[in-house]
Amino acid sequence: MKMKNSILVPVLITAILYGLFIVLRLGFHNFNPTFFICAGDAFCAPGMLPENFLVLKNSTGYDGQFYYRLALDPFTAKQSDFGVMLDNPAYRQQRIIYPLLVWILSFNNIDRVPAYLILVNYIALCCIALIGSAYVKSINIPPLWGILFSFYPGFLLSLSRDLTEIMAACFVLASLLCLRKDKPVLATVLLTAAVFTRETTLLVAISSALIYCLNIIRQRDCQKLPWYFFTIPVLCLCSWEVFLFFKWGKVPFAGGAQTIGLPFMGIVHFFSALIPPARGVEIIYLLEFLFVSATLCLAGISLYSSAASIYIKTTWGFYLFLIILLTQAIWCEDWAFFRAFTECYMFSVLIAISASTRLFIPHALYTLTIWSALFLLRIFHI
């Protein structure tokens, strides 16, 4: 009975299964951690990189190569260095926390960086399991359900290519738990870390600002959302954005401008291209798209009966609106739309798990099914 109610059980399951994934993925690729970076010769010069560093030929690679570069020198003022060129330095450097942590832990040892990029994400996943389990336990739900936070299918993709979503989700979830435990100062610090990890988490602060203002207008108790909870993250990120603008001559936020467009256009185009699915990859995309749709529907159905705070529900609404606005630049493959859906998934689970609906159980099984399928697929494929 004690084991059943322990928040350490989800952590152990997460550690074992994600650890197995990392070992198998490394094992199938000669235990070379640079495989996770997914570097392409469009931005990486093989002759200037360490020995045995894998670089894909005739490829632009993926975002992990830029976090690798920043992990070598987080506050760099050079667009090209260490054999890697940053495609958009201001945009990449605004997400500074993940590479900064790797830089600190590796003691600026270049040879350690590829492995530490994987290790930091792995530790963050275990932390998500711990925090998620503590959160659900605080609302009188068996801690084992907290495993759904760490087993978001998109995290397998982020782990596979050294990306920032895992770390950002960890900070956001920890911030929400601190709010629930009436520790607003620590919650503010964690939310600030989140916005420096991935700027999309700024919507959490914007949502809290809206609720704070509505509470004042309606003369409600505002103690659980103090003014500094949203003010400090916003001011800190804005200051960092201004600094990066003068440093690189470009607005960091503008780097993601091509991902926002007219409502539903990206979704409609993506879905219509999958019907009927002609290839195996299209079948996978369709199942993943249905998973995203089912998650949003579950959260929507659960809104009224959910005991989640109005703050969590409002933040979910902001992320839902963001998903609707995403263009074909995101709605093109699971690597992109699963990354963009991360925060929306986390808040969807927070809403659904606090509601009196049994639909949460089949959805949990669907989540674990998609996760298992991606586990098998991403062991082999880059």
Give an account of the 3D structure.
- There is one protein chain.
- The protein has 382 residues and is mostly helical.
- The protein has one domain (8-380).
- 62% of the residues lie in helices and 2% in strands.
- It is built from 17 helices and 4 strands.
- It has helices at 8-27, 64-72, 89-93, 97-105, 113-138, 147-150, 153-160, 165-180, 184-197, 202-217, 227-248, 265-274, 280-302, 310-325, 334-340, 342-352, 360-380; strands at residues 39-40, 55-56, 80-81, 84-85.
- It has a two-stranded parallel sheet with strand order 1-2. The chain has a two-stranded antiparallel ribbon with strand order 3-4.
- Helix 4 (97-105) packs across helix 5 (113-138).
- The protein starts with 7 loop residues before the first helix and ends with a helix.
Q: Rg, please? A: 20 Å
Helix and strand composition category: mainly alpha
Task: Please mark out the parts with pLDDT under 50 across 5 or more consecutive residues, or reply none.
Answer: none
Task: Note the beta-strand portion.
Answer: under 5%
Q: What number of structural domains do the residues give? A: 1
**Average pLDDT for all residues:** 94
Strand order of the largest sheet: 1-2
Oligomeric state, counting identical vs distinct chains: single chain
The sequence of SSEs as H and E is HEEHEEHHHHHHHHHHHHHHH
Shape: globular
**Count of DSSP H/I helices:** 17
